[in-house]
């Protein structure tokens, strides 16, 4: 199993409603992709890394499922929305469970 964690930083102009929409769209990916064991998304509540407002956590069955996720049109649409509403930076890590 592969676990991916992504932190996303947005512009100051990005609204709370837009951030919530990002979270909702992340969560909805589970309905459109195979190979996802679990997906969670939410607001970052850690004081030391507050500049990254949204956190995504996804567990994939295997590397093939992760690879399919990255290029999937549904995932690409979410990525486009994130850029549209003010993505400034993101940090992602993947690790084997």
Describe the overall structure.
The chain is of the alpha+beta class and 97 residues long. The chain has one domain (2-96): Alpha-Beta Plaits (2-Layer Sandwich). Helices cover 35% and strands 35% of the residues. The protein has 3 helices and 4 strands; from the N terminus they run E-H-E-E-H-H-E. It has a 4-stranded antiparallel beta sheet. The radius of gyration is 13 Å and the shape is globular. The protein starts with a strand and ends with a strand. The mean pLDDT is 95.
Secondary-structure blueprint:
Layout: E1 2-10, H1 16-28, E2 36-43, E3 54-60, H2 63-71, H3 73-84, E4 87-96
Q: Which descriptors apply to this entry?
A:
Alpha-Beta Plaits, 35% helix, 4-stranded antiparallel sheet, alpha+beta, 97 residues, 4 strands, single chain, globular
The share of residues in helices is 25-40%
| Net shape | globular
Q: Major beta sheet, specifics?
A: 4 strands, antiparallel
What are the segments in which pLDDT stays under 50 over at least 5 consecutive residues?
none
The overall strand count is 4
How much of the sequence lies in strands comes to 35-45%
Strand order of the largest sheet: 2-3-1-4
For this structure, what is the CATH class?
A: Alpha Beta
Which series of helices and strands comes N to C?
EHEEHHE
> pLDDT average, as an integer?
95
| Number of helices, where a helix is a run of at least 4 consecutive DSSP H or I residues | 3
CATH-defined topology: Alpha-Beta Plaits
The radius of gyration computed from the alpha-carbon positions, rounded to a whole number of angstroms, is 13 Å
> In terms of quaternary structure, what is this?
single chain
Count of all domains: 1
Distance N terminus to C terminus?
5 Å
CATH architecture: 2-Layer Sandwich
Structural class: alpha+beta
